Amino acid sequence: MVKPLIAANWKMYKTIGEAVSFAREMVGQAGSMDDREIVLAPSFASLSAVAEACRGSTIRVAAQNMHWEERGACTGEVSPLMLLDAGCAFVIIGHSERRRLFGERDKGINLKIQAALKHRLNPIFCLGESLEERESGRTFDVVEKQLERGLNDISSHDIRAVTVAYEPVWAIGTGKTATPAQAGEVHAFIRKWLAGRYGESAASSVRIIYGGSVNEKNVEELMATPGIQGALVGGASLEVRSFLGIVRFGNNG
Ligand code: PEP
């Protein structure tokens, strides 16, 4: 059984002080939950301070991006070695904002996933279709290409450490959530693709989570949908109260 994973993507919000005080509060309120994985993804600047605040708890820390090289003349970039040094266990790769605003392509995303796995950082590999792609009936084609290219050369051993985050671009930060039926069918498609590529056993250890306007109100319904094994949360992860409401899915009633 894979544990569900709930990750907070804080994007370019929170100073170091704000991030640490949030992390401390989360540790106090949810830092011993062990039937689910809770992950905080602050900015690069806050990583080591947040990791320190989470030390001794079950809460893990993720970076929001990284370079695939270990070191080099790459001004402004951060390497897998640096993330490990800062205390990260996870790294978000291929977020749609990275693809759209910073021109990230599948090839580079694949190099990053390979580098993360080499260094035993657990990649959270984001993919999903735009509104235009959905409306023109291309959702499955787009998702399949992203899977094929993003996971190129990833072995059936290494794939077990990957979390796939299905994040329809039209649902990110828009308040429009995919319905459980819409998300569920793409999750099933991803699972089937993974089983075809890696076999049932490896595919069943890959966690597939959903992202796109998840909040305290819709989390129960989403998490009750077959195939949805967690959530990547942006806006609703910025306040402790709302993020706790999501993290405690299944215990809120
Ligand atoms: C995200 O940034 O990955 C995300 C899902 O954002 P939001 O929850 O705000 O839609």
Q: Can you give a write-up of this model?
A:
- The structure is a single chain.
- With 253 residues, this protein is of the alpha/beta class.
- The chain contains eleven helices and eight strands.
- The protein has helices spanning 16-30, 47-54, 80-86, 96-102, 106-118, 131-135, 139-150, 180-198, 200-204, 219-223, 240-247, and strands at residues 5-9, 37-41, 60-63, 90-93, 122-127, 163-166, 207-211, 230-233.
- It has an eight-stranded parallel β-barrel with strand order 1-2-3-4-5-6-7-8, surrounded by five helices.
- The longest helix is centred in the last third of the chain and has 19 residues, at 180-198.
- It is globular and about 45 Å long.
- Phosphoenolpyruvate binds at residues 9, 167, 172-173, 211-214, 232-236.
Residue windows where pLDDT falls under 50 for at least 5 positions = none
Structural class of the secondary elements? alpha/beta
Q: Reading side by side through the largest sheet, how are the strands ordered?
A: 1-2-3-4-5-6-7-8
How many helices does DSSP assign? 11
